[in-house]
Design brief:
This protein is mostly beta strands. Helices cover 0% and strands 40% of the residues. The protein has no helices and 13 strands. Strands 5, 6, 8, 9, 10, 11 and 13 form a 7-stranded antiparallel sheet that branches. A two-stranded parallel sheet has the order 1-4. The relative contact order is 0.18.
Length: 222
């Protein structure tokens, strides 16, 4: 079983560091700590702890000669994601159900209502990840059927532990009017629920929203 690397850090005046497992030593220069790892066994887990000190800044971790794993994909696997709420969906003239946005099939789409009275913008979809994650990105794939209607322009993304209190967006911006997937990276936030708001249609063609697939990345948290 790979050994565990352990470091304890804090403000410069009182910082300290310890090693265990296959860490052969820790050196310090100001607030920078260098953990030396046995070259024959460069595997395991690096734990960074602030101890009892008040730390208000972010930690930056870099690696030389090591490979840091990417965030674990949060995908519609078992248990499947669920649609908690959707502002509008077209189910009369086409299968534009919101669940199509998380079915793993890029040929199906979520499309807001258009066959009778089109639902005005903004539109939104709220998703239950079925577990808590430290979510750090969201990818939105526009419809891939050749039609351009409904491509999202202005957007907001939220992550929360409650659908009753979303707080402020973790990301906001404007997507280009193309069929390419758009990935938005943001500061990780813990939560079970993700909310995507479409504020406008990319080409200003009408009050519609359409999406082929929504996926995200993150790591599980308690």
């Amino acid at each position: 079983m790979p050994a565990t690397l352990f470091a304890v850090v804090g403000p410069a005046a009182a910082a300290r560091a310890t090693t265990a497992g296959n860490a052969t030593g820790v050196t310090r220069s100001g607030d920078t700590f260098t953990v030396a790892i046995d070259a024959a066994d460069r595997s395991g887990t690096l734990w960074i702890k602030a101890g009892n000190h008040a730390v208000t800044g972010a930690f930056t971790v870099t690696a030389t000669g090591l490979t840091l794993p990417a965030g674990t994909p949060v995908t519609p696997a078992a248990p499947n994601w669920k649609v908690v709420s959707v502002g509008s969906q077209e189910t009369a003239a086409e299968n534009g159900a919101a669940t199509n946005a998380i079915d793993g099939n890029s040929a199906t789409i979520w499309h807001t209502q258009w066959s009778t009275t089109a639902t005005p913008l903004p539109h939104e979809i709220q998703l239950d990840l079925c577990a808590r994650y430290s979510v750090d990105s969201l990818t939105c794939l526009p419809r891939q059927d050749g039609s351009v209607n409904g491509r999202i322009g202005g957007y907001e993304i939220y992550v929360s532990d409650s659908t009753a209190n979303w707080g402020t967006p973790v990301a906001a911006g404007t997507f280009a009017d193309t069929a390419a997937a758009r990935t938005v990276n943001f500061t990780p936030k813990n939560g079970r629920y993700v909310r995507l708001r479409a504020l406008g249609e990319a080409g200003n063609r009408g009050p519609w929203t359409s999406v082929a697939e929504i996926t995200a990345t993150g790591t599980p948290v308690p």
